Amino acid sequence: MKNTNSDAITVQATINAPVEKVWTYWNAPEHITQWCQASADWHAPYAENDLRPDGKFKTTMAAKDGSVSFDFEGVYTEVEPQKTISYTMADGRMVTIEFEGNDNITTVTETFDPENTNPIEMQRGGWQAILNSFKQYTEEN
């Protein structure tokens, strides 16, 4: 089920790589742990991913200095290989990710429900930073 919340936030990146590679790097735990951070002082020491409807995922995101960590997790509601992923986060918010490939260029668009704690621009900035990290990792490897 695609996200239709009118308050949803959207971030996007165009990656210089074919959709097959982008899909693999987005979903394989050995890659997720390499790119899933918003800044250089964070990392993702653990990732698991059961990419199918009703499958679960979990990525541990942590400050490199050990001061704080949290698990980003949810359950998939839709998986259309190399096209769409939708999931519900542990707190009930919805996320949809669309992959649009054209030759060796892929656009990744994430749309997510905002949470009520942090300002919208902070949330957009954080998710965009992680997506930019993904873009950089995918293009360099």
From TrEMBL:
**Stated name of the protein:** SRPBCC family protein
* Lineage top rank: taxon: Bacteria
Concerning Gene3D superfamilies, the annotation shows: 3.30.530.20
The cross-references to InterPro entries, in alphabetical order and at most eight, read: ASHA1/2-like_C, START-like_dom_sf
Any idea where the Activator of Hsp90 ATPase homologue 1/2-like C-terminal domain is? 16-138
Give the family, as the similarity comment puts it: Belongs to the AHA1 family.
